[in-house]
Amino acid sequence: VLDSQYGMYVWPCAVVLAQYLWVHRRSLPGKRVLEVGAGVSLPGVLAAKCGAEVILSDSEELPQCLQNCRKSCLMNNLPHVPVIGLTWGRISPELLSLAPIDIILGSDVFFDPKDFEDILTTIYFLLEKNPHAQFWTTYQVRSADWSIEALLYKWKLKNTHIPLHSFSADREHLASSSLPGRHTIEMMIISLAQSDGT
Asked: What is the pLDDT of residues 150-160, one digit of tens each?
């Protein structure tokens, strides 16, 4: 039985994002990485194992998720990886004091449409502070009616679709899940739009 909190389970999106990190592992040593909505932290833990300087975060309102982040680090011999509470859409001292970041990770953070703008507000804030950073994110297609396109435009962000076959993540067993139904996973990289509108 799944816990009622989302961050207690390795969702298929986390496996796909971890695959992308694994394929790009040679570029990770020394990179400064923040995982948002980390839950059990598979992508962030993998990035740390590959030599990135990682900070894990989840909502400050979900102490059990933050505890799971810490447990994942301990189980993977990463006791020094910081875990902080960051709540989407909230400017907090933890958010303001973050060190520079190269890559933001987020697997299945676009889960509930009511959170989409809060997520992108936080991502925009981080990208404004770190203009060369990118947000690497995977999401599960749950409804044809859900879109972040208008919000990306509003927040002057652009997205690049990353085909799953380009990093060997299009195999059914990779993102398989014991959850009912089929799981269509997509990946994109979000960054600041250039001033020329691209």
From this structure: 889 999 999 99
198: number of Cβ within 10 Å: 6
| HEC per residue, 153-164 | HHCCEEEEECCH
Amino acid at 38: A
∠ Cα 52 54 55 (to 5°): 170
**Which domain covers residue 187, as residue numbers?**
12-192
CATH number of 108's domain:
3.40.50.150
| Residues in a beta bridge with 83 | 56
Spatial distance between the Cα atoms of 47 and 81, rounded to a whole number of angstroms: 11
Q: Where are the alpha helices (DSSP H) in 39-92?
A: 42-49, 63-75
CA-based nearest residue to 20, from 122, 162, 151, 144: 162
- Give the count of domains, the chain: 1
What is the pLDDT at residue 6? 52
Q: State whether residue 83 is helix, strand or coil.
A: strand
Dihedral Cα 45, 47, 50, 53, nearest 10 deg? -100
Does the pLDDT value for residue 137 go beyond 50?
A: yes
Q: Are 188 and 110 in contact (CB under 8 A)?
A: no
